[in-house]
């Protein structure tokens, strides 16, 4: 046996497996990166023993939509998302995005990933479409560097924008790429970082930003490239662009995507609050997934998606933070709570809301399925030991511990967790990120924000 850890006397272990198993007063043996055994009174052998008697243990959360580079473009009342339509907001904020450079990408990604880890997220997809004259082509490289330092699993969505403003996009010239240079860089990143094997720490996703800001050929060629190389595909869809798509192509966005083949079990979209009920069936029949991002929908006053109807139709729905410019944090536990409350608010008109546990499974097993991974998303023998634990030996949780399945979203547990483990390695415990000087990095990150954005836009950063 290899490097082993034994979590002993776990108060409750919520597996999120197919049978919704909850173990009580159990041990969890980890051998290398994998879960080896779950049971009572497991032999200790030479394993490193971790007392988990005060812990409820959950599978690591899986974030399926984010924009790490936006972490330095948040808490800005001067460009207030709720007061603008999405397209108008993009038109105002892209000039700020166009000034982000390579160091800005690195430190903003560190901040976002640290926030995710501290709140129980072990795998994060990021939609990186911010390529400027200042970032060059190394944005994903810098994010891989940040992810490697912190030890989080990272799925990189290599995004792009190819359509000029004079042809109807919201993109500044400094952020435009050609389809050819985009795909050439996708190929470079795939060769450098894409690992399809179990326990993979990095994968590449082909992810043109959104249909209204790229040529149709960009999506068509992205599709051909991804299918040739076995990569997954992602884009924004159904977040306010449909009227533009009808004007431009004579059809709604999903119909346009279906026509060119940009649907399927290897495709998932972000947002989808403009999807209509007949489109749920198209999504389900093609196996196309949806990442639900509650924060921007609530913040912008947009429709809250009908998850019960979507899941009844057979859709796979997962959970995402979305970028900090429309969320202001990278706390997926907070998004879980918000999604649960928003669905509960609409429960009477929709014939019942998802339970808090069903929302948790969306953020764990559902997220793993969305990313095409069968090695994470639940706590089962043979799967990666990706997990987080909360310490129940605190006064605010007294009276809630009889139902660990529903506790997180129902009670509103959104603070830092007690421990986060990725592939059997502790990455955050008792308030400290493992193996890094957090104070030094926080100081450097704040300085990077000062030098790269606040000094350039004093009228906005005030």
Automatic annotation (TrEMBL):
<dbReference type="InterPro" id="IPR006680">
    <property type="entry name" value="Amidohydro-rel"/>
</dbReference>
<dbReference type="InterPro" id="IPR011059">
    <property type="entry name" value="Metal-dep_hydrolase_composite"/>
</dbReference>
<dbReference type="Pfam" id="PF01979">
    <property type="entry name" value="Amidohydro_1"/>
</dbReference>
<feature type="domain" description="Amidohydrolase-related">
    <location>
        <begin position="56"/>
        <end position="426"/>
    </location>
</feature>
<protein>
    <submittedName>
        <fullName>Amidohydrolase</fullName>
    </submittedName>
</protein>
<dbReference type="GO" id="GO:0016810">
    <property type="term" value="F:hydrolase activity, acting on carbon-nitrogen (but not peptide) bonds"/>
</dbReference>
<keyword id="KW-0378">Hydrolase</keyword>
<dbReference type="InterPro" id="IPR050287">
    <property type="entry name" value="MTA/SAH_deaminase"/>
</dbReference>
<dbReference type="InterPro" id="IPR032466">
    <property type="entry name" value="Metal_Hydrolase"/>
</dbReference>
